Amino acid sequence: MDIVNLAESFEAIEEYWSPRLAAELNGQHVKLAKLRGEFDWHHHADADELFLVVDGALTIELRDEGDVTLGKGELCVVPAGVEHRPVATEEARVLLFEPAGTLNTGNVASERTVEEIERV
Amino acid sequence: MDIVNLAESFEAIEEYWSPRLAAELNGQHVKLAKLRGEFDWHHHADADELFLVVDGALTIELRDEGDVTLGKGELCVVPAGVEHRPVATEEARVLLFEPAGTLNTGNVASERTVEEIERV
Predict the structure, then answer these.
(1) Are A65 and A79 in contact (CB under 8 A)?
(2) What would the pLDDT profile of B35-84 be if each residue is shown by its tens digit?
(3) A-B interface: how many C-beta pairs under 8 angstroms?
(4) Has residue B75 been placed in a domain?
């Protein structure tokens, strides 16, 4: 049974906005990503997406609602279909939980789209 | 969009072995539980179960394999059908991911079975 150490796994991630697979269960993926700067506006048509900030702070801008800012040890769920844009002024280390196959850029294809997620 | 602060939520949990619901998404539950002592041996017939230790340390005893011990910031997945028993010699604060409706005592009914999970 594999143990994933979050701190060691984040240290091994070099690229920003490039999620890596930490665990798979019940058709869902647990991903780890280092974020810094502004991501692309997007939504996930059929997938709710959970963000848990492990270190740093993350603002999730929402097109039709107020923004949400998560500090270390805080989580929220962006429901399916809600257009959002993650923004981190400093490096943020984030755990994501969402259905397997969910693309990081959702409905938008960009140079930051990760088609094949790699293990941490 | 609700923000869940893990530290504050754990502070609000008084009972050991009594998971509370932190978030629901894609038919899955994110639960928080304070653990201390030995739980009951059990398995979940159809549900993989993720344990992430937010604070403290947790040993997951496995009937047919070596035990697994998770420290703070470590996670693992116990696959469906694998008999296990969580043990925490000191208080452990644990985040669980599993399908909605998964019972904490799995296939075993005991006085610690939580039928209706409450929100944190």
Answers:
(1) no
(2) 999 999 999 999 999 999 999 999 999 998 889 999 999 999 999 999 99
(3) 96
(4) yes
